[in-house]
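Shapes recur. Our protein:

. . .
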Amino acid sequence: MAIVLRSSPLLWTRLAAMVFSCVAFSVAVHGGRLYHGTGDWCIFCWAFSFAGTLLVILVELFGLEARAPVSWKNFPITFACYAALLCLSASIIFPLYYLKGSMGPSEVRDYRIVSTVFSCLATIAYMSEVSISKARPGEVAGYMATAPGLLKVCETFIACIIFVFVSDPVLYDHHDALKYCMAVYCICFILSAAIIMLCIGECTGCLPFPFARFLSAYALLAVVLYLSATIIWPIFNFDPKHGGSKSRPYSCSSTMGLCVWDKNMAVAVLTAVNFILYLADLIYSTRLVFVSA
């Protein structure tokens, strides 16, 4: 089996991302003294990114792209985008829980600072990979390399973060309107994830209807659903008429990480962000339909 080594900015960017993510989780495991569940999440982000990048490099190194059971036009950039978002989340969460107000030994704090720095470097490297790999105007590329495809990745990732916030403790079970918002998050996440899987598996041609028109119709549905959730979630969490509180409770200042009010606010902000992403997705998908026509 011949080894194909082509030096390129994309290869060096992937190698840098792999090294940075490896250093981040190695240092954290070695001397970071991770004691909270969020530490496991950060380790997963870095280790998953490292392992996936190593796999991509090895497949291309041995010229196995044609034998891969996935679309190689869509998989590497999809993974790179997820890895960028994972490392970004770890770069925010890790210092929030392990550096903010840290009173431990200075050596442990130094390890945590190193992990945070290399997590930020990995994030930059993965963002650079996405920037290099994304489709240019007039270029023939996979759907996931286009703006709508990358938006799908961001939409599903933000939905996953919302799921984390609303599940511990459960934030949506005290009113039917909030259960509706949860249904919106689940429906849109499932459909967006299904679109990504169809593209990676090159199964879009198996659909009984035009894929481009389906994307446009789904984007319109998602915009309407997320617009309603963007309005409903803050009303039933922060309006005093519905048992909410507009101001942040004083007890949140002494809580490690995020208190319930903070999580409700984070969900409200992320819902609005996803609404904007779906709106941009709708604009791009509509243009795609007209261009295809």
Notes: The chain has a mean pLDDT of 88. DSSP finds eight helices and no strands in the chain. The longest helix spans residues 260-292.
